[in-house]
Design a protein that fits this description.
294 residues; five-stranded mixed beta barrel; two-stranded antiparallel ribbon; 9 helices; disordered N terminus
Length: 294
């Protein structure tokens, strides 16, 4: 394998994968500079043009690079426009809704209650079906006069929940955490809270065994928390083992930032776990092949 995919123009040689990769990244970078997105049909037309140029580029390195860059530009803009179009209708803001769906991630417990990502399968208002964003962030709090105590919420469970939703908002501070950008990256286009009442109870539905990876992550996190007496140490271990950064206290995050090791929790934690798995597998394989070791 030489990393080359097609003959290039006479005198230039074949077109290389690195050239196309640079063109792809260049197209994405150019689109990210757009102050305002174009209409989705414009991006769709640009996707077609990019594909055509990429096909013609089998005979021209320049055309291939331009086609790949155009394709990356259009695909990125199309996805962004599609996500921005998934908004909560103004008429449904703050209204009592009933949503049916699946807990899509590890619930985060706090002194106030639970916070979790919910994938909506169906939404209703006054018995009529309505459209809401597919992924929403919900809080389930115990101090709002709910009719029942908080449940043992697990990733992958299906629920029918009475909720109130609003568009995602966050404070904008210089050099601070951009909550709206983070929610956008996570495909969360609305937030709200569960509002359980006597006339509108929450109900757990038959379990489809969805999100098996998230179920396993929650089981491992719970096992760590049950076996490690120090909550702070348990939070750090959970972050390193399963990438659950929410298990780390805010004071600990401030300490990690001040000492310059916050990246170990936010980026390197899963790398540590992956290396531990690989090292364990390698040592186990060598052990089984060594008579003296056995």
């Amino acid at each position: 394998m030489t990393g080359r995919i097609a003959p290039g123009p006479r005198g230039r040689g074949p077109i290389a994968w690195p050239e196309l990769a640079i063109a792809w990244l260049g197209g994405i970078g150019l689109q990210l500079q757009q102050p305002v997105l174009w209409a989705q049909p414009v991006y769709a037309a640009l996707v077609v043009a990019g594909l055509a140029l990429a096909v013609l580029g089998r005979r021209s390195a320049a055309l291939a690079a331009i086609g790949v860059a155009a394709l990356a530009f259009a695909a990125t803009g199309w996805r962004a426009a599609e996500r921005l179009a998934e908004t909560l209708p103004p008429a449904l803001v703050g209204q009592d809704l009933v949503v049916t769906g699946v807990v899509a991630d590890l619930p985060r417990a706090s002194a106030q209650g639970l916070r979790f990502v919910f994938e909506v399968e169906r939404a209703e208002r006054l018995g009529q079906r309505v459209r809401v964003p597919e992924r929403v962030s919900l809080g389930w709090y115990g101090d709002r006069g709910d009719a029942a105590p908080l449940p043992d919420l697990r990733a992958g469970q299906r629920w029918r929940l009475p909720v109130r939703l609003r568009p995602p908002h966050g404070t904008l501070n210089p050099k601070g955490f951009d909550l709206e950008l983070w929610l956008f990256a996570q495909r969360i286009r609305a937030s709200g809270h569960v509002r359980v009442r006597a006339e509108a109870p929450a109900a757990q539905l038959p379990d489809p065994r969805a999100h098996p990876v998230q179920r396993l992550r929650q089981d491992l996190r719970d096992a760590i928390e049950s076996r490690v007496a120090d909550p702070a140490a348990a939070g750090v271990l959970a972050a390193l083992a399963v990438g659950d950064q929410a298990a780390i206290d805010r004071d600990d995050w401030d300490l990690f930032r001040a000492t310059g090791v916050a990246h170990l929790m936010s980026i390197s934690g899963l790398h540590v776990t992956m290396f531990a798995w690989l090292a364990g597998a390698a040592i186990g394989a060598l052990w089984r092949r060594g008579g003296r070791l056995m």
